[in-house]
Amino acid sequence: GDITNYYGHIWKYVTDYLNKKNLGFPFPDKVVASAIILLNGRVNSEILSKAIKVNLQKDDWDELLELLFPLVQKISNDEYAIFHNDFRVFLMANNSSGAKYRSIAFQLAEYFMGDNYSLSSLNNLIPLLISADRKDLISGVFNVDYVIHSLANGLSRRRLQEYGSLAYQSAIESRDWGRYHSVYLAIHTMYQHYRYYEYYEKEYKLEDK
Asked: Is 205 a residue whose pLDDT tops 70?
């Protein structure tokens, strides 16, 4: 319909911009689309320039994302957000599977593995490993430190429990006692924390609603 044509028209600005740059790798528009989809429509140009192994500097990412206005808008110095969720759905129609998508997911995951438990890392890392088809690595990242930082940053109970169960499955499949033990301690820490809050009737502060 009309709205799809409108999204297609704006997306064409991006593909033209990328084609003029002669970046030397195939389907550069798929790289950009994958990054926007994988980061749930909140993208940081600084992170993209460091995480994704293509010849695009931070300024290039800023320029690219600004071409998507008003669908994508700048909300802080380096951060942009999708203001039309239907646009994310439009991008997903052609870009949410395949080797390129998995490769970008893994590049972003690797960046967040070294990102010292920022809120962005805590929110994105495990979903990125799933998208990269690397569930085997979840048991290596879901440890006591990950849980403590997640609780301190207000990750929701539902989300943390979901990650815990994925990590447990990953640990069992790894047949690695060290990993299994690490995940067991992480899950134990998580439930101890919830029991403490329930006992003292404390209010748990959510930051990722």
From this structure: no
